Amino acid sequence: MLTMMSTPNHTGVKISGDYFDLDELNQAIYKVIGDEGQYHGYEGTRMRILAVSYEIRHAAQGDRNVDFVFNGLHDHTMKEHGFIAPDKNIYFSVEVLWPELIFAAIALKDFVGLYQKKVSKSVWDIHLPVIYRFQSLVLDCLRGHIPDEEYGTVLAAFDQPLTMDDYAIQYVDLLNLKWIEMAKQQRQQSLSTVAMKLAVPDKEYQAFRKQVLSAAAPAKKQIHQIEVSAEYPEDFEW
Fold first, then answer.
1. Distance in angstroms (rounded) separating the CA atoms of residues 168 and 207
2. Which residues pair with 16 in a beta bridge?
3. How far apart are CA 217 and CA 48, in angstroms?
């Protein structure tokens, strides 16, 4: 079963599951976001989601964390059925920064709409429930770490029709880097603020986006092709 929990220092979220949980999520993401260039204006947002998907895929391959989780098999059950088996299953997990994960959950709303409009209109589509659960788990994890009244505001913002078309994805890097530099207590106090910044573009984002567009104009580049100069630290505490 796919699970999410905030890391000890609230730097990010630990996504856990067995191989099939993580592979199912990864395949659903691939299907819903489509091929490169399939949805004009969403190239940068797609790349951003693929970065999260990359981590999930490597987690499923055992390249990140390996955990042993009790599977419900008790001694009396083995005795009753006459067999001996491990009482733990192997789970794989990976940590993703809070701003990065929140952005992915929001951005997937757009791709779900595009997918339903242009690829699959079936109410029995096998991939959409997987995406919905992923988004719900992000929100549920968020709910566990912010006051109820703030969560209500964030949830209402998540429900608003927001388009990630031509989004300045470098803004997520800005939020990620600021988040890493914060102390644990500051992260606890700022989680709902970061969620709101991603759910409802504010003046800071609008000003940032204008700067990125100004940098893109001389070289006639698309907005997502402008790279940020800041580098992520190699090591930090989750």
1. 11
2. 3, 93
3. 22
- Residues β-bridged to residue 155: none
For residue 161, the model assigns a pLDDT of: 81
Q: What average pLDDT values come out for the chain (238 residues) when binned by 10 residues? A: 96 97 97 94 95 96 91 82 83 97 97 94 93 97 94 92 90 96 96 95 94 89 86 91
Structure-block tokens of residue 44: 């940068």
How far apart, in whole angstroms, are the C-alpha atoms of residue 134 and residue 117?
21
What is the Cα–Cα distance from 235 to 238, expressed in whole angstroms? 9
Q: Is 158 exposed, middle or buried (0-12, 13-18, 19+ CB in 10 A)?
A: buried
The 3-state DSSP class for residue 236 equals: coil
| Separation of alpha carbons 142 and 13, rounded Å | 9
**Crossing angle of helices 184-199/148-158, nearest 10°?**
30
| Cα–Cα distance for residue pair 87/74, rounded to 1 Å | 7
Give strand ranges (E) for the chain.
3-6, 12-17, 65-70, 88-97
Q: How many CB atoms lie within 10 A of CB 90?
A: 13
Alpha-carbon distance 75 to 30, whole Å?
41
Using a cut of 0.85, tell me whether the model's pTM lies above it: yes
For residue 160, what are the CA distances in angstroms to 117, 142, 155? 19, 17, 9
Structure tokens, 133: 């659960």
